[in-house]
C-alpha cells in the first residue's frame, strides 16, 4: 500500500511538470503512460512511448522517486531495472527525469573521486579496464582504422571513416609535421595516427600506450604496412619516455592524468620537445569553471563504470597548466560540435551491431557502453563537456620560426 501511494504521488508530480515519450511497466502488470497524448505516428490518439522502463519489484521504485543519471544508469547496468528504446531517447528521458525530479548531487562524492592518486600502477589499471575489453569489441562500432577520439567534419555529412582521417590529417598539419621528423604519439591507441604520419607525411614515429591489446594490434598493423623501421609502438607510461622529439601529439589521453598533475604532464611534454618542437593536446574538458563533474550524476556514473580515475579540467585550467609547464599556447580550436556528431555515429554503429557486440562481451558491459556513448553525445550537444585542440611550443621561443597565419593548417 505504501509503495502504491508513493508511486501515485511520483506519477502525479511528474505529469504536472512535463510530458515524456515514456512508459513505466510495473511488476503487477500496471502501465503508467507519460506521453503528451498527441496523435501518434500510427494514427492512434496517443503518442507511442519511445522509452519503456520495466520495474521488476517494489524495491526498484527508489530509482525513480529521486532519479539521477548515476542512479538510473547504475540501476540499468546492474539489472535492477530494464530499459528499452534507442539509446539517444533513453538518455534524453533520463536527463529530463533527473533535471525535474532529482536532488542536488552530493559534492562530497566529487571530492572523494578526486582523492585517488594517479600513480603509474593506478593509471595502468584504469587504462586496462577501459581499453582491454577486446579489440573485436571496439572494431564492432568504431571506423575501420579504429580511431577512438573526436572526428573532424569539414561539412558535417561525411561518413565516420572519412571524418576520422580528416581529424588525423588536421592534427598532423597543425603541428606542421615534416618528412624525417621524429613524432611522439602519447596514447597512440591502435596506431592510426602514427601509421598516417609515417605513410602520408614521411615522419619517424614512436607511439606509446598502456593497453596491451592496443599495443599488440598496433604492432601488427605496423608490420603489415612494412613500417617496422619507421614506426615503434611501446607499452610505456608517458612519465618514463626518454629522448627528444620534433613533434608531439596527445589525443584523448590527458583526461587520465588528473587535474592536479596537469602542470607536471605539460612540463614532461616540454622536456621531451626539441628547441623548435611543436605539440598538440587534443582532449575533453568540462565546461564547469571549477573543474567539477557534469550535472545530475553523469560524471559519477562514468567514473565508476567507464573511465575509473578520469578527470576533466576546464579550458582555463588547461591553459594555465600549460603555462606552468613552460609551454606557450599558440592555437586553440573548439571541436565540441564535432564530438557530439562523432558520439552519435558511434551510438548508431553500436546499436546497429548490437547482436554481434553481445557475443563479444557480457550484458553488463554491453549496457554500460550502450548508455555511455549516447550520454556523451548528449553532453557534448548540450555544452556540458567540450573538446579543444591546443597547439603549443616552448615558452619564449623565437617568433621568427612561427608561421604568420593559420593558413598552413589547411590543404
From TrEMBL:
Documented EC number(s): 2.1.1.-
SUPFAM superfamilies referenced in this protein's UniProt entry, alphabetically: S-adenosyl-L-methionine-dependent methyltransferases
Stored CDD domains: AdoMet_MTases
Family: Belongs to the CFA/CMAS family.
UniProt-listed GO biological process terms: methylation
Coiled-coil ranges (or none): none
GO molecular function, one term: methyltransferase activity
Pfam family, one: DUF7884
Domain DUF7884: 14-93
Alphabetical UniProt keywords: Lipid metabolism, Methyltransferase, S-adenosyl-L-methionine, Transferase
Superkingdom of source: Bacteria
Protein name from the UniProt record: Class I SAM-dependent methyltransferase
Keyword S-adenosyl-L-methionine: yes
Amino acid at each position: 500500500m505504501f509503495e502504491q501511494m508513493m508511486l501515485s504521488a511520483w506519477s502525479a508530480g511528474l505529469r504536472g511538470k512535463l510530458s515524456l515519450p515514456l512508459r513505466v511497466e510495473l511488476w503487477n502488470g500496471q502501465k503508467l503512460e507519460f506521453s503528451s497524448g498527441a496523435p501518434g505516428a500510427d494514427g492512434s490518439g496517443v503518442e507511442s512511448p519511445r522509452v519503456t522502463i520495466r520495474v521488476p519489484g517494489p524495491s526498484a521504485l527508489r530509482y525513480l522517486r529521486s532519479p539521477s543519471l548515476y542512479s538510473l544508469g547504475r540501476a540499468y547496468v546492474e539489472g535492477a531495472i530494464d530499459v528499452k528504446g534507442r539509446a539517444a531517447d533513453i538518455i534524453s528521458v533520463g536527463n529530463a527525469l533527473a533535471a525535474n525530479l532529482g536532488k542536488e548531487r552530493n559534492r562530497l562524492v566529487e571530492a572523494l573521486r578526486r582523492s585517488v592518486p594517479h600513480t603509474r600502477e593506478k593509471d595502468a589499471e584504469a587504462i586496462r579496464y577501459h581499453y582491454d575489453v577486446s579489440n573485436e569489441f571496439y572494431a564492432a562500432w568504431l571506423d575501420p582504422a579504429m580511431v577512438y577520439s573526436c572526428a573532424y567534419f569539414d561539412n558535417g555529412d561525411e561518413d565516420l571513416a572519412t571524418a576520422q582521417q580528416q581529424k588525423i590529417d588536421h592534427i598532423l598539419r597543425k603541428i606542421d609535421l615534416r618528412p624525417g621528423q621524429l613524432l611522439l604519439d602519447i596514447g597512440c591507441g591502435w596506431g592510426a595516427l602514427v601509421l598516417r604520419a609515417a605513410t602520408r607525411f614521411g615522419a619517424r614515429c614512436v607511439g606509446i600506450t598502456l593497453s596491451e591489446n592496443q599495443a599488440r594490434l598496433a604492432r601488427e598493423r605496423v608490420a603489415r604496412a612494412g613500417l617496422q623501421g619507421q614506426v615503434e609502438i611501446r607499452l610505456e607510461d608517458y612519465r618514463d619516455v626518454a629522448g627528444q622529439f620534433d613533434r608531439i601529439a596527445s589525443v584523448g589521453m590527458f583526461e587520465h592524468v588528473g587535474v592536479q598533475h596537469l602542470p607536471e604532464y605539460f612540463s614532461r611534454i616540454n622536456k621531451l620537445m626539441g628547441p623548435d618542437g611543436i605539440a598538440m593536446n587534443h582532449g575533453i574538458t568540462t565546461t564547469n569553471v571549477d573543474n567539477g563533474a557534469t550535472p545530475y550524476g553523469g560524471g559519477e556514473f562514468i567514473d565508476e563504470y567507464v573511465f575509473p580515475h578520469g578527470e576533466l579540467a576546464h579550458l582555463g585550467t588547461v591553459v594555465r597548466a600549460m603555462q606552468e609547464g613552460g609551454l606557450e599556447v599558440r592555437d586553440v580550436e573548439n571541436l565540441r560540435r564535432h564530438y557530439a556528431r562523432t558520439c552519435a555515429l558511434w551510438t548508431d554503429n553500436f546499436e546497429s551491431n548490437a547482436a554481434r557486440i553481445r557475443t563479444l562481451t557480457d550484458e553488463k558491459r554491453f549496457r554500460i557502453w550502450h548508455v555511455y556513448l549516447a550520454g556523451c553525445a548528449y553532453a557534448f550537444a548540450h555544452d556540458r563537456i567540450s573538446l579543444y585542440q591546443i597547439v603549443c611550443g616552448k615558452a619564449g621561443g623565437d617568433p621568427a620560426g612561427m608561421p604568420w597565419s593559420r593558413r598552413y593548417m589547411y590543404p
